[in-house]
Amino acid sequence: MKVSGAARRGSHRPGVGDRVEATPPEPLPSPLEPEAIPIAILHEDADLIVVDKPAGLVVHPAPGHAGGTLVNALLHHCGNLAGVGGVTRPGIVHRLDRGTSGVMVAAKNDAAHQALALQFHDHSIEREYRALVRGLPRADSGRVERPIGRHPRDRKRMSVHAPVGRAAATAWQVLRRYARSDRCWLAVHPETGRTHQIRVHLASAGLPIAGDPVYGRSSSEPRLSRPGLHAAVLGFRHPRSGERLRFEAPVAADLAARLAALARAEGGS
Are residues 117 and 136 in the same domain? Predict the structure, then answer.
């Protein structure tokens, strides 16, 4: 790296008016292998791909999940994604938890990745989730605004009681109450993008997501083997054209079956 014509170390801090010259390194070869994993495609063009991720599919490789991920599926379907957003998570702009189903977008080139990442960073992305929760709130809508950070004792969990947390806000609205079963179907709008945000915030409000083994009151939920959380809507501006796009993913079959059972228990459809 050179600063105003002089060679400098990477730790050097340029001053106002300095000219910085640097040569980006060549992208490292990806250690990930393409895998022929079926994916439901909602939209695809030269810059991005929008998919309906099923519950149970991990987004990118991590300890305990070296393969069989959405990234492996994208590498097989899209071909070369090397260097797009990083070697270990090529193309990934955001993620859904393993147990969450629904709509996701991935980038096919660096320009698209940077443009989409900026929209997520400045919260101009439209995101709407559906959540089946335990409990019946008194109000028909609400908002949780509490910082989220690492749990003080369990580092794998997030918490609103962390010693150090980042600002986070989540709004919710009741779509249907299932009084006989003590369940509620919510539309949820995360205003920020913290790890496990919806699950943590709803649990802190006394509305834990049904079937959530980490933040719920119980991991047991009839017809569900995962948290009842679904990413229903994703809207953003196309990174190349600037056109506003909006995609919806239908409620996953297991969650739809649970809702149908709850409706029957209420004596209606």
Answer: no
Q: Mean of the per-residue pLDDT values for the chain?
A: 91
97: annotated active-site residue: yes
> For residue 26, what pLDDT is reported?
63
77 φ/ψ angles, rounded to the nearest 5 degrees: -80, -45
The per-type count for the chain, helices as H runs and strands as E runs, is 4, 14
Whether the CA torsion 182, 187, 191, 197 is positive or negative: it is positive
Question: How much of the chain, in percent, has pLDDT values that exceed 90?
Answer: 72
Angle at 107 between CA 226 and CA 47, to 5 degrees: 135
Q: Domain range for residue 237?
A: 126-269
Catalytic residue among 97, 110, 140, 254: 97
| Pair 131, 173: CB distance under 8 Å | no
Low-confidence ranges of the chain (pLDDT < 50): none
Do 118 and 174 belong together in one domain? no
